[in-house]
Amino acid sequence: MISCNIPTPMRALAIGAHPDDVEFGAGATLAKWAANGCEVSLLICTDGSKGSWDPAADTAELVEIRKVEQRAAAEALGVSGEVVFLDYVDGELDAGIEEREIVASWIRKIKPDVVLGHDPWKRYRLHPDHRNAGQLAVEGIVVARDPFFLNDSVLPPHRPSELFLFEPEECDHLETSEGYERQKLNALESHKSQYVSTMGITKDNETKGLQDFRTRISEGLSAFGDLAGIGMAEGFKRIREI
Ligand SMILES: [Zn+2]
Hints:
By secondary structure, the protein is of the alpha/beta class. It has a single domain (3-239), classed as LmbE-like (Rossmann fold, 3-Layer(aba) Sandwich), CATH 3.40.50. Helices cover 40% and strands 18% of the residues. It is built from six helices and eight strands; from the N terminus they run E-E-H-E-H-E-H-E-H-E-E-H-H-E. It has helices at 21-35, 59-77, 97-110, 128-145, 181-189, 206-226; strands spanning 3-4, 11-16, 39-46, 83-88, 114-118, 162-166, 173-176, 233-239. The two termini are 20 Å apart. The relative contact order is 0.19. The structure holds zinc ion.
């Protein structure tokens, strides 16, 4: 059974491993909720310092560029909450107790009704950061919710009502994206430093590359929408027992 479209939450927090991940996974949904009055916040776990195929790239500069791009992407989505960078080194994100407590503290601080994150149970996933960021979203909720965690914290426990996992191993919920595809693309295309490595857009084929990228995103949205015959959508594993 696939459910569709929850009422707009008051606050949502999307947790991504790298700058650009939440836009790929849930950009249209976040734009839609933001347009309908949801206070959307983003938590980016790593600094994105390995996001280049150029061995000569200045990685310190890349980190700063990716923050600027991420803020522009957040603006394209209409994000009115916080954009938080945890700055763990790209490729080296752990899902240990310390990282989990930091994520939980942000959940307590932001008090989201819905948390969104990578599906850590997606099979055959290669990138450790995506798996670990997903784990941190899941386990961060447990730490945020239960009163005997974070004993030194002044922040009271907070229990979100929903967890949406994007890139789901088992999709059981859709959010229609009609009217918000352009914002998702605008947000994704704000990550210009990722044109070559992630989006297949090179200087020589910029027009065609951009077109192909937009087609790829549209096809992804259609594929989810087709699961319930509802046009374009983003797909999630929805967890309500929190
Ligand atoms: Zn990523």
